[in-house]
């Protein structure tokens, strides 16, 4: 039953949403943990209010990456609400934005915040925080499964095969008009291995990531 004068989260003004978002993204002049917790909770409620216009505004006003720095705080109320909002943002985002969010879940700032702050040694993990971390982990594992079940393209396979790390020779052979029989057999065997699902394209991504890491170190 509706109550006179009651304002639903789906009915709040755009100006109100933008103002609350400032307390999260760092645009506000001051930052207080209690205010931050309230703001995170309000934004999450608006995001889940089933109003598409308000949802899109929240997605614009509160970028996923703006939440990562708050995970470094020691206040578990902040951490819980940040993780909850992160999962809500992912659930409401369109596919291309979800891909961007998953990339943020693998970058150093996020991983360091989780390892050094959220999962500090000797610290009893809050049940609510643990549940939100499980959801994030499931998101990451689902993405890995998706890659493992995708058959890589021939161009992707050739790119990896050309790496000296794999065949110990100059990659000129791959561009020569005539490929040696030995090299052709090696390439076909490699192709046959990585088109299996799993590991699919996940195998190639892992190899490229390893090579990039070695090159940078």
TrEMBL record:
It comes from the Eukaryota. InterPro entries: ELMO_ARM. It holds the Pfam family ELMO_ARM. Residues 1-118 form the ELMO armadillo-like helical domain. This is DUF3361 domain-containing protein. It comes from Onchocerca flexuosa.
């Amino acid at each position: 039953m509706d109550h006179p004068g009651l304002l639903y989260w789906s009915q709040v003004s755009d100006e109100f949403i933008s103002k609350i978002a400032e307390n999260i993204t760092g645009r506000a002049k001051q930052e207080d943990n209690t205010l931050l917790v309230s703001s995170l909770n309000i934004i999450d409620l608006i995001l889940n209010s089933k109003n598409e216009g308000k949802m899109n505004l929240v997605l614009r006003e509160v970028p996923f990456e703006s939440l990562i720095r708050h995970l470094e705080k020691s206040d578990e109320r902040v951490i819980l609400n940040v993780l909850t909002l992160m999962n809500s943002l992912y659930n409401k985002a369109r596919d291309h934005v979800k891909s961007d969010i998953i990339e943020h879940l693998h970058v150093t700032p996020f991983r360091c915040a989780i390892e050094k702050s959220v999962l500090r040694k000797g610290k009893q993990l809050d049940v609510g925080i643990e549940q939100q971390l499980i959801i994030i982990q499931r998101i990451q594992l689902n993405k890995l499964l998706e890659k493992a079940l995708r058959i890589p393209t021939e161009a992707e396979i050739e790119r990896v095969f050309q790496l000296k790390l794999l065949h110990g020779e100059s990659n000129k052979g791959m561009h020569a008009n005539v490929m040696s029989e030995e090299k052709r057999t090696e390439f076909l065997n490699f192709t046959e291995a990585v088109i299996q699902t799993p590991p699919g394209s996940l195998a190639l991504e892992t190899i490229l990531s390893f090579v990039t890491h070695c090159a940078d170190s």
